[in-house]
Amino acid sequence: LGEADARSAIHLTLLVAAISVPLNVVFGISAAWAIAKFEFKGKAFLTTLIDLPFSVSPVISGLVYVLLFGAQGLLGEWLKGHGIQILFAVPGIVLATVFVTFPFVARELIPLMQEQGNGDEEAALSLGANGWQTFWFVTLP
Question: Would you put residue 40 in left (φ > 0), alpha (ψ -120 to 50) or beta?
Fold first, then answer.
């Protein structure tokens, strides 16, 4: 723990976790809420996107990142011209972490929210709560 490399690795891990966890919470709850509580066009597509990290090898997702953000990638020239580094830097690590861990939040909450039903939300709306109040004080807790 006293070596500089070990401290750097611990710092990087804590930084990536501090960025990835709030992103996963916000987007996971939002996706689960949309899928469980509403009927909309593209619902099946959103569910498929959530399940994508379970069916795609991490090697393939890494290859996609290289093809997108690498030096000869689709966005590589533009990123290099603007001094932005994604691969082999904190943004790339955060992207990979969020991609791999995002489905766990949404997949855990979707069945729970579906089982909860809409009765409590409808009661809150009929008592005068607006959409945000219903979400914050009824659905989320």
Answer: beta
Write the DSSP symbol of residue 3: S
Q: What is the pLDDT along the chain (141 residues), one digit of tens a residue?
A: 889 999 999 999 999 999 999 999 999 999 998 898 888 999 999 999 999 888 888 889 889 999 999 888 899 889 999 999 998 899 999 999 999 998 999 999 999 888 887 888 889 888 888 888 888 888 877
Per the CB < 8 A criterion, the answer to whether 65 and 87 are in contact is: yes
**Distance separating alpha carbons of residues 104 and 94, to the nearest angstrom:** 16
- Tokens 């909860």 -> residue: 116
